[in-house]
Each structure stands twice: as C-alpha cells, then as structure tokens.
Amino acid sequence: MAVTTALLDWIGSVVARHLMKPSSGYEPYAAARPELVAVTIRPADVLLVEGRRSNVNSAIRYLTQSTWSHAALYVGLGAKLGERDGEPLVLVEAELGTGVIASPLSKYATYNTRICRPIGLTPEDRLKAIQYAVARIGYAYDLKNIIDLMRYFLPHPPVPARWKRRMIALGSSEPTRAICSSLIAQAFESVGYPILPEVHRVDDQSRREIMHIRHHSLYTPRDFDVSPFFSIIKPTIETGFDYKQMKWVKNDAAPGD
C-alpha cells in the first residue's frame, strides 16, 4: 500500500509540474478594485478565483463548465497568521505544488473574483470553521486528484459524459491531504453548514448522479457559487455604486467602421 501511494505521489508530482505551466489568454474584465474587496470580505467568506494562468485551472474550468477554477477561505486578521512581505496572511487555500498555505488577499488583486458568504452562520461556528482550516496549514495537496485530471488531457477520454465531473473529484480522501474545494467543504461540514443538499430522487438519472456528489472530495469551486446557502457579495455594489459617476469614452464611429 505504501509503495502504491508513493508511486501515485511520484506520478502526481510529474503531472503537476506540467499542469502548473502557465497558459495564455486570460485578461480580467472589470475586476473589483482590491481595496473594495478588502473592506467587503468577511471571515468565513469563500473567495472564488477565475483565470489563474495554468493548465490545471483550464482543466477545472472545462470539466466543471464554470469560470471559477480556485477557491480560498478568508480567515481574516483574527486568525493571526502573520505577514509576508509586509502583507497580512488572511486566506487559507490548498494550492497545487505547495499544499495548504496561508496567503495575502493581494495575491488575487489582478484576477476576477467572487465573494460567497455563508448566510446565517453563527459567530461560534464561524470561528470553528476558520480554526478547522487554519489547523490544516501545512497539509499536502491531494495528488491523486492530479491523476484524475490526466484524463482531461487525453484526446478522447473513454469516460461517459455524465462522469465528467467525477474526473476531477475523486481524491484520495486521506485526512492529511486536501484540494482547494474539499478543504473548504470540510471546514463547513465540521460545523454542519450545508453547501449543496442531497437530492433524493431516483426516477431521473441526472438527479441520481447529483445525489452521490456530496462527499467533501467531490466539491468544486462552482458549488459555492450555485449553493442556495451562500450569498454572492459584489464589492463594487456593496460599497456604493452610482452609475452616474462613471466616465465613458465617447465613440461616434458606426459599427464596422
């Protein structure tokens, strides 16, 4: 068993190096100003990230049919995780190649992001969820998840369409390993807060598939976006938006000129 795990880790690390290579074509569109994100985001909010330049994130976006390829948990200054280069470490995230780490909010200042806020989470459970994530800093990234991602790069993956999501959502389920979404899912699971409920229907195949996608290793960044229990927070609107104050460049040219 140990030999098998070591072999999978070695294969996963090789594939990971390939997946982490930069990819092109990303340009943020009207991303919220970093200072607005900083004053809007609250502890236990989930920060979704779009467009990180790597092959692995392209694979996640494709397989989940979503623009969100990464998720981090905002733990705030109260977590007292210290600083890096003079910036406070306020995010906990599982990152390919490094494992579970603490990061500054400015890390994603140039990316399109979305704040997902758990509604009704009690102060006590908020603290427990944060402590759960913080306690796992230093855990390894689940490289078995990378083995699953290899299928994305096959010209014609021999996998039925209904299994696409599971291609990136198998994981090893080892307690000291994590991927970005499963880490956060486990933090909320530890206090009994739902992300997506189970759907108990057996007359429809797609519903039956959804019913099985509830283990923490099967969550993806998109799930926090579509969850009925998380509110979408947009910093530009939350801090006071007045379209009358927008400055437009006048363009008198007719379309096609």
Task: Report what the structure shows.
With 257 residues, the chain is of the alpha+beta class. The protein has one domain: Alpha-Beta Complex (endopeptidase fold (from Nostoc punctiforme)). It contains 9 helices and 9 strands. It has helices spanning 2-19, 34-40, 55-64, 123-134, 144-149, 180-189, 205-212, 221-226, 235-238, and strands spanning 46-50, 68-74, 83-84, 87-95, 99-104, 112-118, 140-141, 177-178, 230-233. Strands 1, 2, 3, 4, 5, 6 and 9 form a 7-stranded antiparallel sheet that branches. Strands 7-8 form a two-stranded parallel ribbon. Strand 4 (87-95) and strand 5 (99-104) form a beta hairpin. Helix 4 (123-134) packs across helix 6 (180-189). The longest helix is centred in the first third of the chain and has 18 residues, at 2-19. It is globular. It starts with a helix and ends in a 19-residue tail after the last helix.
Query: How much of the polypeptide forms β-strand, as a percent range?
Result: 15-25%
- The count of β-strands is 9
Task: Find the structural class using helix and strand composition.
Answer: alpha+beta
What is the straight-line distance between the termini?
Answer: 67 Å
Q: Which CATH-level-2 architecture?
A: Alpha-Beta Complex
Quick one: CATH class? Answer: Alpha Beta
CATH-defined superfamily: endopeptidase domain like (from Nostoc punctiforme)
Number of helices: 9
Q: Summarize model confidence as the mean pLDDT.
A: 75
Low-confidence stretches: none
Order of helices and strands: HHEHEEEEEHEHEHHHEH
What is the overall silhouette?
Answer: globular
In the CATH scheme, what's the topology name? endopeptidase fold (from Nostoc punctiforme)
The overall number of domains is 1
Mind describing the biggest β-sheet?
7 strands, antiparallel
User: What is the gyration radius calculated from CA atoms?
Assistant: 20 Å
Q: Level of helix content? A: 25-40%
